[in-house]
Amino acid sequence: MTERLYDDGLLLEFDAAVTDVRKTSKGYEIILDRSAFFPEGGGQPGDVGIIGTARVIDTYEQNGQVVHLCTSPLQIGAAVHCSVDEDIRIRRMQGHSGEHLIMGFIHKKLGLDNVGFRLGSSYVTLDLDGEISMDDLRECEQQANLAIAKDIPIRISYPDAEELAKLEYRSKLSVDEGIRIVTIEGIDRCACCAPHFPSTGSIGMVRVLSAQSYKGGTRVYILCGLDALDLFRERTETVTSISVLLSAKPEKTAEAVKKLYDENNALKKRLYD
Questions:
Q1: What are the tens digits of pLDDT across the range 140-190?
Q2: CA dihedral 121, 81, 39, 141 (to 10 degrees)
Q3: Rounded to whole angstroms, what are the CA distances from 161 to 13, 158, 177, 185, 192?
Q4: What Å distances lie between residue 209 and 122, 131, 272, CA to CA?
Q5: Tens digit of each residue's pLDDT (9 = 90 or more) over 26-64
Q6: What angle do CA 131, 134, 136 make, to 5 degrees?
Q7: What does the pLDDT look like over 126-141, one tens digit per residue?
Q8: Closest CA to 20 of 7, 9, 8, 35
Q9: Are 238 and 215 within 8 A, CB to CB?
Q10: Half-sphere exposure of 264 (CA within 13 A, CB side)
Q11: 114 near 103, Cβ under 8 Å?
Q12: Which residue among 69, 93, 104, 146 is the one 20 to 30 A from 80 at the CA level?
C-alpha cells in the first residue's frame, strides 16, 4: 500500500523510494513507497509532475497502490526526489475547494445535492439534483466569495464508524470506515478523497459562468481562482479590442455594437426597398 501524503494539499515536493516499475503500451507505471501525487478520483484528474528523471503524465490507483504513469523508467530501489506540478495542482485545488464552498451554500439554501462533478480543462461542472435560478446562484456565489475573504479553515478528518453514524455530510457513503471528510467550518461537510487547501482564502474567487437544465436537474458551470482570472483577462482584452475598433469606452461597447447593428439593418432595408 502506498503511503499517501496529499492530505496536505500544499505538499508539492517529497522524497520516496521506487518499489516497482512496469512497462505498458502507454509508458512506464512506477510505484513509490510514499506519494503526494493525487490519483484520479471523484471527478478530479490525476496529478502530473516529475519523479527523479522521469516525467509523470498521469496518476491513478490500482489495488491500493498509487500508480504514476511516466515517460521513462526508473531503477527499482532507487531513492528519488519528486515534485508535483505546482500550477496544475493549485488550479485543481482552487476548482475543487471552490466547488465544495459554493455547494455548501446551495445545499443550505435549497437542499440540493451535487450528483455529478467534473474538473475540466475549461471549466468545472456541477450537476445538481434539482432546479436553481440564476438569482439563487448569484446569491450563493456572493456568499462563497465573502467566505473566501474571511479565509475560513478547511479541515480533513477520518471519523470512526460511531462518529460517522452521527455525522451529517454531503455525498453520504454506504461504507462506515475509512471515510475522508472535508469540512469548511460552518459551511459544508462532504466525503471527498481529493487534496484541498487549509483555508478558503487560497481559492481566490468563485465565479458562476452559466447554468442549464440537465437530466431533470441543473448543470452549473463555474471557474475558480487562477482559471477565473485567466478568463477575466481574456474577456477584458477582447472587450478592449472591440472598444478601440468602435471608438467607445469598454463599458459602452454593447451600446456601440447595438447602434452599429441598427445602422447596418437600416442600410440593408434602404438597399432592398
A1: 999 999 999 999 999 999 999 889 888 899 886 666 677 999 999 999 999
A2: -50
A3: 33, 10, 6, 21, 16
A4: 11, 16, 40
A5: 999 999 999 999 999 888 999 999 999 999 999 999 998
A6: 75
A7: 999 999 999 999 999 9
A8: 35
A9: no
A10: 6
A11: yes
A12: 93
Helix axes 225-246, 86-110, angle to 10 degrees: 90
Chain centre to alpha carbon of residue 76: 34
171 grid coordinates: 455525498
Distance CA 55, CA 111 (A): 43
Count H helices, E strands: the chain? 5, 15
Residues 248 and 257: their CA atoms lie apart, in Å, by: 10
Strand 54-62 relative to strand 49-51, pairing = antiparallel
Q: What does the alpha-carbon distance between residue 134 and residue 208 come to, in Å, rounded to a whole number?
A: 9
Beta strand spans in 92-205 (E): 114-119, 124-128, 154-157, 181-184, 188-191
- Give the amino acid at 226: L
Could you tell me if 184 and 190 are in contact, meaning their C-beta atoms sit under 8 angstroms apart?
no
Residue 203 phi/psi, 5-degree rounding, is -65, -30
Q: Given the C-alpha cell 504513469, which residue does it identify? A: 69
